[in-house]
Amino acid sequence: MGTTKFTARLSAPSAADKYWLHTSKGGLNECILISGSSVLPNCVGYAWGRFYEITGTKPTLSKSNAEMRYCYAADGYERSSSPALGAIACWSKGVVSHGADGAGHVAVVERIEANGDIVTSNSAYGGRRFYTETFKKSSGYNFGAYKFQGFILPPGQTSSEPLVTEANNGGDNMTNGIPGVDISYCQQGLNYEKLKADGIKFAIIRSSVTGTGSHKQSVDNLFNRHVNGCISQGIDYGFYHYSCAVTVAEAKKEAQFCVEQIKQFPLPKYPVFFDAEEMQMANLGKKAATEIVTAFFDEVERLG
Known about the structure:
Number of helices: 7
Strand order of the largest sheet: 1-6-2-3-4-5
Number of domains: 2
Radius of gyration: 20 Å
Number of strands: 12
Strand content: 15-25%
CATH topology of the largest domain: TIM Barrel
CATH class of the largest domain: Alpha Beta
CATH superfamily of the largest domain: Glycosidases
Order of helices and strands: HHEEEEEEEEHEEHEHEHH
Structural class: alpha+beta
Distance between the termini: 45 Å
CATH architecture of the largest domain: Alpha-Beta Barrel
Helix content: 10-25%
């Protein structure tokens, strides 16, 4: 967004607004056509159009179910656990990618209160065309059965706050968990000294990714920086590859590429992880997906 002034949308767009008219009806919105010429009411189509309105550029956001949008790393936008004006707030419901138990929700941050609460603009499939709602920071932005996933930031917004997780160090529960972070290209300008001062003991670093459409592997833009930053502060680390594999052969190729990147660094304390979030793998079914995941780890083990 650069230095462009942000204007909050707290009232409904007109029925003729091009950002929410479907492309087949002369508009700009590529999400599913819902009613007449409009993509509304639908949270996915609404947030896609609002992002377009804010940025002035056609979004590369996922147009699948709402809960899949945050997982869609191929869009190129930065993720954050902290809100920003114009960011898309994302929630899952039930098991992600399992539409039968709910498709999640997305909304757009229009105002951030002093206490961290966010005022959002929304639309609801099968419900209201437009409405505003406030979500509480004190509740972790969760509501009802909806679990908050994070924020997708507009171009020009940056965040250095990684997602914090915990690792079980051998106990039967998480009360003795070790605080750690998941870091990737999203964490530009990450201060590793501060990370250590904050008590973070380990980082799981994205080494590589497979493109959703191209199925080609590439190194995470900040991979080397993150590894060297952790080494400089004595922070333990492990690695993960973001997969788009749909065959065993592709999974093996991903493993080979991943190992090629990580072998240049000292042997990590934590293992290599396989990040499987894409619907194209889930749609293959449990048996095929399991074979793909197993093939990846078998190949990593074979390569040492």
